[in-house]
Amino acid sequence: MPAYLANDGDAERSDGRSTSPNSYHGSRPRSARGRKEVGMIGQASWISSVINLVNTIVGAGILAMPLALSRMGILLGTIIILWAGLTAGFGLYLQTKCARYLDRGAASFFALSQITYPNAAVIFDAAIAIKCFGVGVSYLIIIGDLMPGVVRGFNEDAGGVGFLVDRHFWVTAFMLIVIPLSFLRRLDSLKYTSVVALISIGYLVILVVAHFIKGDTKQDRGDIRVVQPPSAVAVFSSFPVIVFAYTCHQNMFSILNEIGNNSHFRTTAVVFASIGAAGFLYVLVAITGYLSFGNAVGGNVVAMYPPSISSTIGKAAIVILVMFSYPLQVHPCRASVDAVLKWRPRRSADSANSSPSRSGLLQPPAKPSTKPKGDGMGETRFAAITTAIIVLSYIVAMTVSSLEKVLAYVGSTGSTSISFILPGLFYYKISSPESPHHQKLMKEDDDEDDGSGSEDEGLLGGSILKGGPWRRKLLRRLSLALAIYGFIVMITCLITNTLFVVAPH
C-alpha cells in the first residue's frame, strides 16, 4: 500500500450556499434573531463532528507507524508524530478562523479563494479532487488485495472457489455497498458508518497492543533504536507517511457548516479532540508495534502476525475501515469537481466591486429554502458528478493493481496544500488589517460585544475569544509560517518520492 494512504478517510467538503441573506454568520452563536434564521443548516452534534473528523484522520496508515519509528528511532519518531499533529491541528484551527468570514453554511476552499486568490481557485479545487479520487481508488485496491486472504483465513478451502479469491469480484461486491453511501449529501449522514470504522480502528489498536503485552513476537524481533536513527535518508523516507497521516482538512469546512453550535469554543474543541485522539493512537501503535518486532517490522504491522483468527479479523477490520472511508473521499471530490466546472476567470474589476460583507460574498437565492443544505448542487448535477466519480474509480481499481508512485506525488502536493499551504495563505490574506472582509468582521464582533454573549463566551470570556491586536498579529505571522512550512514539506516529500522508495503501509 502506498504511504500516502496515511491520511485516510478524507471526507466531504461543501460548497453549499446560505439560503438566507441574514443567516448565521460567525463562529459564535448569534442572538436569538440570528438563530431563527439558521433553518436546516447546522444540525450535527459536537460528538458527531469529532467522530467524522477522527475517522477522516485515522485510517489504514496507522499500521505504518511502527515502520516509521524503526527508521527514526523511538524518541525522534515520537517527536515527529506529535509535531505533525500540532501543525495539522493548527491548519484546522486556521480553517475555523477563516470560516468566520463566510456565510454560515457556505465555508469551503472555493468560497475562500473567491475573496483571496480568485483566479487560483480552479487550481486549488483540482488538486483536492485529484487527491481524493486517488485515495478513493486506493481504498478499492486495498479491498481487492486483502479480501482473498481474509476468505482463506476463515476457510482454507475457499481457494477452490475461484471467484472468492478474485480481487475483481471483491472490488465489485464492495462497490454495491459503498455506492448508496456515496450518494449521501451530508457528512453528518455518515456518522454511523464512521462509528463502525472507528470500531475497526479500535480492534486493530487492541490487536497490536495485545500482541505486545503477550510478547509472542519477541523471538523474531530485530534490534531496537531508541535515539539514534539509522540515517537521514531513512528519516526522510518515512517523514511523508507521518505528515500525511493527519490529512483531513478537506472535510473541516463541511464539519463547520454542519455543526449545530459553531462557536469558537466548540469548533476549537473539535480540532483538539480529533487531533489529540489521532495522535494518541498513532503513538500507541507506533511504540507497541515497533517494540514487538523491532527493526524487522514491515509496512503493515497486522500482516506480520502469525496466521490466526484474530489476525484474520484484523485484516477484515482494515477492509471495513477503508470501505467506509471511500464515501468520505467521494464527498470532497464531488464538491471540488463541481467547483472546477463552475469556475470562470475573474477580472480584477469584479474583485474590486465585490461586497466585503460575508452575506454578499456568495449571492443568496431570492427565497429562503428549507431543504437540507450541503453542497448547493441540483439533483441532476449531484447525481451526474457522483456517478462519474464512482464509475471512473471502479474502472481504475479494476485495471490497476498499484498506484503507489502516482499517489505518492499526488499526496505530496495535494495533502500538503490543503493541510498547510492553503489554510496559512487564506488566513494571512483575509485577516490583513487592510482587508475589507476583516474590517467588516471586526465591526460585527464589536456590535456583538454590545449585546448579550453566548454561554461559551461567558465561559471563556469574549475578549479571550476575540483576541487583542497582538494576538491577531501573532496568528497572522504563524499562519504565514505554516504556509512556508507547507512548501518546505512539499519539496521534501517530492524529493523523497523521486529518489527513494516510499514506505508501504
UniProtKB/TrEMBL annotation:
Q: Which residues form the Amino acid transporter transmembrane domain?
A: 43-443
Residues of the region (Disordered) are: 1-36, 348-377, 437-460
TM ranges are 44-68, 74-94, 122-147, 167-184, 196-214, 226-248, 269-293, 305-326, 382-400, 406-428, 480-503
Question: Where in or outside the cell?
Answer: Vacuole membrane
Query: Residue ranges under compositional bias (Low complexity)?
Result: 350-359
Example of a GO cellular component annotation carried by this entry: fungal-type vacuole membrane
* InterPro entries in the cross-refs: AA_transpt_TM
Q: Where is the composition biased (Acidic residues)?
A: 444-458
Primary location group: membrane
Q: Which residues form a coiled coil?
A: none
Membrane topology according to the record:
Multi-pass membrane protein
Q: Does the keyword Transmembrane apply?
A: yes
Entry keyword set: Amino-acid transport, Membrane, Transmembrane, Transmembrane helix, Transport, Vacuole
Molecular-function annotations in GO? L-arginine transmembrane transporter activity; L-glutamate transmembrane transporter activity; L-histidine transmembrane transporter activity; L-lysine transmembrane transporter activity; L-serine transmembrane transporter activity; L-tyrosine transmembrane transporter activity
Q: Which Pfam families does the record associate with it?
A: Aa_trans (PF01490)
Q: At the top level of its lineage, which domain of life is listed?
A: Eukaryota
Its family remark reads: Belongs to the amino acid/polyamine transporter 2 family.
Q: Which PANTHER family match?
A: AMINO ACID TRANSPORTER (PTHR22950), VACUOLAR AMINO ACID TRANSPORTER 5-RELATED (PTHR22950:SF678)
The protein here is known as: Amino acid transporter transmembrane domain-containing protein
The record lists the organism as: Letharia columbiana
